[in-house]
TrEMBL record:
The protein's Enzyme Commission number: 2.7.7.9
PANTHER family for the chain: UTP--GLUCOSE-1-PHOSPHATE URIDYLYLTRANSFERASE
Protein keywords: Nucleotidyltransferase, Transferase
Enzyme class name: transferase
Cross-referenced Gene3D superfamilies: Spore Coat Polysaccharide Biosynthesis Protein SpsA, Chain A (3.90.550.10)
Protein name listed in UniProt: UTP--glucose-1-phosphate uridylyltransferase
Length: 276
């Protein structure tokens, strides 16, 4: 059973400036819920109730979000507005939240290594909360946790993307074991369409085995001068220990403005209006 999930939330969110100048990108709401809360709910649903946040300067709103607001509780307890607190109270009841700060933004691999102290030596999930994933059945992390019990190695969530978009992603190639499950032998970070080994792109959901930390320590900076998790995963893939999983569900790229707007419209029409 995987009980911990890491949330690297230290990035600058430059594509959302000026909104993200003094506000974390992960706190931008899709309708009325911050992006990061969707990710936390997905992790808790998968049994990963310890949420390890790798934060940075200017990200205190995230820490505060996952704590009690005494004033708010005091003001609206017993009033007709109390129901508005239900969803976050539910998360706070079930989750444990731990934090560490990444002092320099040296890439996702570096962020994950910074979170080592919150994880220790056990397998763990990773959620990049700017990828919002929804599914009618079990969430993407829950699907991956089940797969982990079968394979006991690192797992990356993948989806097919048009060839002209592969340059935005880490891309895999591998042997198809059964429907939607691949044993990965090659991973390339942000390849051009010519260099890409396939159109199977990694999205922001991972399950990692803890040997990844020692591998990242030895991984030099790669694409964009950042320590790339894809480069570290390639070492595990060389050992036959990385699976890729074509998840069931839909993913919105909320790290980009068009994806964010698409997610907002979808959640408003398909969830908010139906539930309110
Ligand atoms: P992105 O590159 O998509 O996020 O990193 P960003 O840097 O915040 O966005 P832009 O490009 O400037 O708009 C993917 C994820 O990894 C985290 C980010 O917070 C995001 O969730 N990350 C990235 C870190 O935590 N630390 C880093 O050094 C880099």
């Amino acid at each position: 059973m995987i009980s911990k999930c890491m949330f690297p939330v230290a990035g600058y969110g430059t594509r959302f400036l000026p909104a993200t100048k003094s506000m974390p990108k992960e706190m931008l709401p899709i309708v009325n819920k911050p992006l990061v809360q969707y990710g936390v709910e997905e992790a808790i649903e998968a049994g990963m109730t310890t949420c390890a946040m790798v934060t940075g300067r200017g990200k205190r709103a995230i820490t505060d979000h996952f704590d009690i607001s005494y004033e708010l509780e005091h003001q609206i307890s017993g009033t007709s507005k109390e129901g508005y607190l239900d969803s976050i109270r539910n998360v706070l009841d079930k989750g444990i939240f731990t934090m560490v700060r990444q002092r320099e933004m040296k890439g996702l691999g570096h962020a994950i290594l910074t979170g080592e102290t919150l994880i220790g030596s056990e397998p763990f999930g990773v959620v990049l909360s700017d990828d919002l994933c929804i599914n009618e059945g079990p969430g993407v992390l829950a699907q991956m946790a089940e797969l982990y019990n079968q394979f006991r190695c690192s797992i990356v969530a993948i989806m097919e993307v048009p060839m002209e978009e592969v340059h935005k992603y880490g891309v895999i190639a591998g042997e198809s074991l059964k429907d939607g499950i691949y044993r990965v032998d090659k991973m390339v970070e942000k390849p051009s369409a010519d260099e890409a080994p396939s159109n199977l792109a990694i999205i922001g959901r991972y399950i990692l085995t803890p040997d990844i930390f020692d591998i990242i320590r030895e991984t030099p900076p790669g694409a964009n001068g950042e320590v790339q998790i894809t480069d570290a995963l390639q070492i595990q893939a060389d050992r036959g220990c990385v699976m890729a999983y074509k998840f069931k569900g839909r993913r919105f790229d909320c790290g980009s403005v068009p994806g964010f707007v698409e997610a907002t419209n979808h959640m408003y029409e398909n969830h908010y209006l139906k539930e309110s």
